[in-house]
Structure to design on (80 residues):
């Protein structure tokens, strides 16, 4: 592959990545300004009960999980 094609490909990827970062930065700024940070749970605080579907589509509550012992919540945000 010639150098110019490689450079063009690099530029496109770079500009796309910069656009994603700018969008994420803008969203983080919007959330912070909305006061969400002050209302968010802090480390060590107990989460309120909630119910969500598991991978099989069955409703599971945090209270059900707590009944089995300590629980850890992990929030994964993919690239949607």
């Amino acid at each position: 592959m010639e150098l110019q094609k490689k450079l063009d490909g690099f530029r496109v990827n770079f500009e796309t990545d910069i656009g994603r970062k700018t969008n994420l930065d803008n969203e983080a700024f919007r959330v912070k300004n909305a006061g969400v940070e002050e209302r968010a749970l802090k480390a060590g605080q107990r989460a309120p009960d909630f119910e969500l579907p598991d991978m099989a589509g069955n409703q599971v509550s945090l209270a059900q999980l707590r009944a089995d012992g300590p629980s850890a919540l992990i929030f994964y945000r993919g690239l949607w």
Observations:
- DSSP finds three helices and two strands in the chain.
- The chain has a mean pLDDT of 85.
- The two ends are 31 Å apart (CA to CA).
- The helical segments are 3-33, 36-39, 62-67.
